[in-house]
Amino acid sequence: MTEGTPIDQTSHLSVPRKSDSDDRVPPWLLLVLFLVICIPVFISVYFSYRTPQKQQPPTNITPLITPTPVPVSLGFSGDEFIRGWYWGKKEKFPATPDHWVYTEVDGKDCWHSPRTICR
Known about the structure:
This protein is of the alpha+beta class and 119 residues long. Among the domains are: 25-50, no CATH class; 78-112, no CATH class.
């Protein structure tokens, strides 16, 4: 040794230092962690949206509009409808079928089905 250089007496006792690249987590481990955590989450979300949820129907339904009965006047009876004709005016009653025709018989007005005759 030369005279002016200090002797390092601890160099043979020191532990070799790791390089900065040795402190990093290996990429394959990150991938495995990602797959182990994310795949079950994705599967549960997928099946929770695909599976229809059973919903109970509401028990107390109140209508927005209360129906009120409206009186409807046919203008003639059911017997006249079954018979296929009725005596009336030149204006037919609101419930008269569209295919019925008007005829005048002996000065009387008659609405009837084309297949029947007023008597």
